[in-house]
């Protein structure tokens, strides 16, 4: 029996050169290749970078969702912003049509 814990929960490896859509696309291709039947996977993948390098303070990020609603970001002033990303569930379609959203959070944001 296929187990996500056994097959996919491995120590994280640096993936900074890759975009989240590429990471989830590769995972989707692996799931399709395994032909595990009617099992699907939802996921969120994000990469964060520290902005204390002269651009200001806070973090920048890129995220992609697969089978989830877009993430919501709360800024320090209380404003809530939708990080519009999209993608189909993984393992269901050869082309999951994944799109990324870029965002910036300043101190006090979440």
3D architecture notes:
The protein has 110 residues and is α+β, with helices and mostly antiparallel strands. It has one domain. The protein contains 2 helices and 5 strands; from the N terminus they run H-H-E-E-E-E-E. The chain has helices at residues 4-8, 20-34; strands at 43-50, 59-66, 71-74, 80-83, 100-105. Strands 1-2-5 form a 3-stranded antiparallel β-sheet, covered by helices on one side. A two-stranded antiparallel sheet has the order 3-4. Residues 1-15 have low confidence and may be disordered.
Strand order of the largest sheet: 1-2-5
Helix content: 10-25%
- Report the uncertain regions: 1-15
Question: What's the total helix number?
Answer: 2
From the N-terminal CA to the C-terminal CA, the straight-line distance is: 38 Å
Task: Sketch the major β-sheet.
Answer: 3 strands, antiparallel
Q: Describe the oligomeric state of these chains in a short phrase.
A: single chain
- Give the H and E element order: HHEEEEE
What is the count of distinct domains? 1
Mean pLDDT: 80
Structural class assignment: alpha+beta
Radius of gyration: 16 Å
Give a count of the beta strands, DSSP E runs of length 2 or more: 5
Shape: elongated
The share of residues in extended strands comes to 25-35%
Protein name: SpoIIE family protein phosphatase
Domain PPM-type phosphatase: 20-108
InterPro entries: PPM-type-like_dom_sf, PPM-type_phosphatase-like_dom
Brief overview, please?
The protein has two helices and five strands. By secondary structure, it is of the alpha+beta class.
